[in-house]
Write a structure and sequence with these properties.
The chain contains eight helices and ten strands. By secondary structure, the chain is α+β, with helices and mostly antiparallel strands. The protein has two domains: 109 residues, Pseudouridine synthase I, catalytic domain, N-terminal subdomain (Alpha-Beta Plaits), CATH 3.30.70; 147 residues, 2-Layer Sandwich (Alpha-Beta Plaits). Strands 1, 2, 3, 4, 5, 6, 7, 8, 9 and 10 form a ten-stranded mixed beta sheet that branches. A hairpin with an 8-residue loop joins strand 2 and strand 3. The radius of gyration is 23 Å and the shape is globular. The N terminus is likely disordered.
Amino acid sequence: MTENLKHSLDSISSSHSPHRPSKISKTTDDLSDDEQQQQQQQQPESMSQRPGIQRYLLAIEYIGTRFSGSQQQSNCRTVVGVLEEAFHKFIGQPVSMFCSSRTDAGVHALSNVCHVDVERISKRKPGEVLEPHEPAVVKRAVNHFLQKNEGDVMVIDVRSVPANFHARYKAQERTYFYRLLSGAEPLSTFEKDRAWHVPEELNLRAMQEACKVLVGHHDFSSFRAAGCQAKSPIRTLDELNVSEVVSTPCFPSIMERKQNNLGEDPHAGTNKSETDPPPSFNGGADLGFGLRKKHRCFVVTARARAFLYHQVEVRLLVGVLKAVGTGDLKVPDVERILNAKTVTAASPMAPACGLYLGHVKYDLP
C-alpha cells in the first residue's frame, strides 16, 4: 500500500453523514439514442466542472442476490449505497454514484460501470484541495473498505475520465448473460442463486433457431414490463444466441484429466453435432460414491445498445427460449409471440438469479 493511500485510510473517521440522493431521475436505463441525447443535454451542471474535482469511471462486479437492486433506495441494501459508503470512508465526504445500468434485485454483474466525482481535501489542512488520487489508489482504497463490509462488491477497474463523461449516456452497448443448468439432479450448493435450474432436458438446436426470430430490429412490446417508461418499445437486438459451456464450478474428473494429459480429443473420430453435450457432462455416468453428476450448462447471450425496463426484456426472452428448449413452445410460436405485441403472450419470466450484466462498451477517451 502506498504512503498516500495509507495516510488516507488511517486518517478517515468512521462516522459519516447520510448519502446524498442520486440525481438521475427514476426513468429507464435503456433509452433510444435520441432519448439518451435529450436527457444528457438536460443534466444539471456537474460538480466535476469545478476546479479540483476528478471524475472516475469504475467497473464493478457484485453478487446480485445480496442486494435489493443496484440503485440507491431508502432502508434497503443496494450496490450504489454500499459503494457510496466505501467512498465516504475513503475520502471523508459523501459522494453520488451514477450507474450505466440499473440491475434489479437478484441480478448479478460481472462488470457494471459507474462514475463518481471526487474532491480530494487535505486532512492536515482542512479546506486545502490536493491533486486527485491516481486510479490505482482509488481502486485499492475502495476495495479495502468494501472487503471490510460484506465483500460482495468489488471494484475491478478504475479510470480517470473528463468531467462530461457519463457512465450511462456514453455507453455504446450492453451485453448480458443468462445461465441455465439442465438436469434432474438437485442444484449444487455452490450454484444456488447463480443460475436457473431447469430439471428438463433442453434442445439446444431449437433454442438457437428461436434466437434467429428474435434478433434484429423489432417492436418488443411482448417483452416489455408494465412499469416500463421508455417512449418506444422498438429496439435493436444485435446478438442473441445460446451456447452450451462447461458447468462451473467444474473440477475435472479422472477421465478428463487423462484426456488433457494425453492431448486426446474425446470426440475424435465421431460425428459430434451441435446439440451433443460437451465432454465434461457426465449426467449418465456412474461416477462412484460421493461424486456429483454435473448439469448441462447453457448460456444465453444478449447484446444491444439499449434494453427495455431493468432487463425484464432479457428475462422474458430467456423464458421463451427455455420454453422452446423444453418443447412447450415451437419456433413458429416465438414469431407469434413477437408479433402479438402484448406481454401476456410471452412465457413466464426467467428468475433474476441467472442473469448477469457482462460488459458495458465505451469509446473511452
